[in-house]
Amino acid sequence: MELDISLEEPWPEGAWENLAERAVDTLTRHAPELDNDRLSASLLFTSDADVHALNREWRDRDKPTNVLSFPMLERDDLLTLAADGPPELLGDIALAYETCAREAAEKGVTMEDHATHLIVHGMLHLAGHDHEISDADAEAMEALEIKTLANMGIADPYGDRI
């Protein structure tokens, strides 16, 4: 999969592109439908203000959030996508810096680990997974996140749930 990555203020300079590519590469081991050279996705590292505007415009939610995903393919189309053919846009993801930084601090994890989790989470949404449909769907999506992050040496982000 090809990633088009844009880094905007207030995200600091860093290895965000490498982090994102590593997260997606690792995720494809657990979500093989994403392991297709025809696929591309855009990833925008941006501000709370920009994510707030996107959330308000596209989801009718007047607040910032940590990550937004805008899928372009239906899950059935992704699952049947042949290896040969023209490029296909899987979708777009936006991460909000201030919310991500606050959440990382609250969880006592690094910004890099939290951003990695949110990238994996967002990519799974682009792949048609949805934790809001049912408890079973949420558990399946979380299991993919946990396995992917574990392969990257990142602790279970849901481990504090009772």
Automatic annotation (TrEMBL):
GO terms for molecular function: metalloendopeptidase activity; RNA endonuclease activity; zinc ion binding. This is Endoribonuclease YbeY. It comes from Altericroceibacterium endophyticum. Single strand-specific metallo-endoribonuclease involved in late-stage 70S ribosome quality control and in maturation of the 3' terminus of the 16S rRNA. Its cofactor is Zn(2+). Pfam families: YbeY. Binds 1 zinc ion. It is found in: Cytoplasm. GO terms for cellular component: cytoplasm. Zn(2+) binds at residues 121, 125, 131. The lineage of its organism: Bacteria, Pseudomonadati, Pseudomonadota, Alphaproteobacteria, Sphingomonadales. Its EC number is 3.1.-.-.
